[in-house]
Write a structure and sequence with these properties.
A hairpin with a 7-residue loop joins strand 5 and strand 6. By secondary structure, the protein is of the alpha+beta class. It is built from 8 helices and 19 strands. It folds into 2 domains: about 90 residues, no CATH class; about 375 residues, Porin, CATH 2.40.160.10.
Amino acid sequence: MASQVSKPKVWRRGYGLISLALGVMVLTVILGTVSPGAARDPLLEVLIRKGVLTPQEASQVELEAKDLEKEREQKVAKEVTKSVEKNADKLVPKALKDLQIKFLGYVDYSLGERPIRDNTGRYKGQQNSYNQFDLTRAYITIQKKITPWMSARATLDRHRPGGNDYEVRFKYYYAELRPPNLGFLTDMKSEIGMGHMPWLDFEEHINPYRCQGTMAIERAGIFNSADLGVSLRGYFGGRLPESKVVIGDSHYDGLYGSWHIGVYNGASYHNRENNDNKVVEYRVTLRPLPYYRWLAGLQLSYFGLYGKGNDSINTYATLANVAPLSTNNNYFADWVTHLVMLSYQNPWVIFTGQYYAAKGGQEGRRVDPTGSALWGHGFSFFGNVRFPWWERRLNLFARFDYYDADKDNEYYPSAMYHKYIAGLAYELYKKNLLLLVFETTNYGRNIHDWPGWNGTRSYLTRPDRFNTGLDDDTRFQMVYQIYF
């Protein structure tokens, strides 16, 4: 009889202990576990005192409960993330999907001396001071991806005609179409509208200091960066793997190089078309050793251009205050350009060396007294070294330009200038730069540099017309590049 009574007691006791243990586990999962160093859960303490659990078993229960809670939290987080991603398109207005807005600005302060301009020219020995702040660029760019193969871009920039109020004008305004790959020709893009010309956008993604001033061939007044027309560009053989790590940049990172061809008005983005000629431009860049890490950044580029200058030679004669050069007011001088450049990039060093020969120029002003376009030539070297200190933000760079507008000395024996640039650049944060620069330009006697300086848009004149040339152009420059 005793044995019959004891069984229910044992059963009830076991059932009670099991229920109590399950209750503790459920309660632990719901309320969380005790952090290390804190008091143990009171229910677990009771089970330990009654001998149901050892301290080691109680600790194991706590760890298992903590793991269960982590799994629950991760599951909830995944479900929330999945729900947000699923409904993201519904939360963003259709007009704002795949829309980007970017800002790029250059705030410039220059201190130094430049040749004076008056109504008849700039004379050696007469200078005035820079000592001024200027806003040399103020891009506002809007880009919209319409479909996977079609997008559009509009970029506004500042313009200061005659040195007066700042005005706004379009720098870029184009549709971009992306055709499928064609064998070895990959990653193609076509720009229709006011788009990039083939050369300067490419060079400015190797030389990162456009904020200091224009590149060598633009500084010489041969051409600038944008024009109305249609173009097609792409890569050879796909993209260079991990280009940001290997060469320090992900732009124009074709595995075996890149290419760009276009047909344009020839007037650029800031002039109207004055003739019915169209200008053909193209660039071919080869990357011979993409799989050798320290040589992957080596590239050889060629750029070619064929067309007519935008201004008639008599328009030039009027601006230069000389007699008409032709009885035909619709005669436009030839404009031909050839450029070759060797470049090298890695995360620590950048180097470029280029030579160019140009007959005439974009504005049709490089002509002799008969109106025939002159052959000019020039070369430029640029180098940049990134220091390993201060989180690799500090750079030292230098550049030398030489340009002669009459390389054969047919009429202007001293139509050249030499330009020297050296400075420091500090990257504050993701393309936000601070530059400290010294720049000086030495002019030949035949440079009549109106209305720009530093060689840009130069006219040519015989020294006996003004009896003298331009004095040196020298400045210390501080530039802040704003990017976001």
